[in-house]
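Good morning C.,

I know you're traveling, so I'll keep this short. The sequence:
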Amino acid sequence: MEVWFRQTAPYYCSDDAPTPFPVPGHMWDRARGQQLYADRMKFIRRLDELGFDGIIFTEHHFGPNGGLTPSPLVLLSAATQVTERAKLVTMGIMLALYPHPLRIAEELAMIDNMCQGRLRPGFISTTSQNLYAYNVPAAEERARYHEGYDLIVKAWTEPEPFEWHSSHYDYPCVSILPRPFQTPYPPTWTTAVSQESMEWAASKHMGFMSHGPTVECAQRLGYYKDYASAQCGWLPAPSELAIAREMYVLPSARRLSEAELDRTIEEVFEHDEVHAFNFLEADASPLRALDQERRSERSFSYLTAVDKPFFGSGADREGRRSGQFLAGTPDMLLEQIAAQHKATGAGVLVVRNEVGAIDLPQALEGLELFAREVLPVVQKL
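The tokens, ready to paste straight into the viewer:
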């Protein structure tokens, strides 16, 4: 089982007071920002040295969550120069936000050459926060995303110049350089919740990542495999299926009772509550409306184990019980991961421990322990 690390890269103006959405320009501390990027590059280098199989770069706009990565491609490019072995993963690029998908095709091809084929580009639907930031109508999001993806793949693989004419993109000539290092093109990934998005991804032979409770992940990945096999003529391997989890690592000497672990977790995540953006607040109404419009076009009938899909991080005591949140000592983590591996059949575990009040040095401390005592065992599953 491979283990990929998903970065958060937040920007909080203050550790003690909420950072709003959108973040006003006056809240940007230039000295702090420069230091955060310098620390981030050292962190990425260390993840590679510790033996993590992949490092994920996300995309966010205008908000404190992921505030340091409005462009995952810029940080990915820098990461090619401080890593040697880890896969470099986007999860994901929101194609609907880009007026020219060809620019994404060119830049990803550059990155694939710079890292000698370690790129794993992930593409995803656009969240309400980012549709709002770039003023993209929710009704156009899916078509822009899917047309852009098809254009990128053809630009990577078509050996001769070609024309492209679709609803949202129109080019009299397409012939990009460079070409990707990998042939026919870098393996692509996505994550989704709706049935329509999963079926589309299966038709494109994409790797698939699932969030949510373990029972929901198992059903979602199972549906994805079944649909890919029955309707698309291929069967995803375990290495093409992933589960994403929050994580909190405790030293072995600090084995706690269930109640003590819950209290510790609650303290850690009080920080997230301070900075959480509430869609139900009055000034969040444009985002709430966008979110409702997006979901109205999606169905979830493939789920029978739950009434509706889980939306959120599950970073609380209930999330720990449902499997979304891995927490405890190395031995406890190994037990939880092995059970989830067996239940879901996923060959990739995605973890994130930049959570709550955990800053980058504290996150790295936990990952050092994880890499020593958990990672080598998990990689043999």
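Safe travels,
E.
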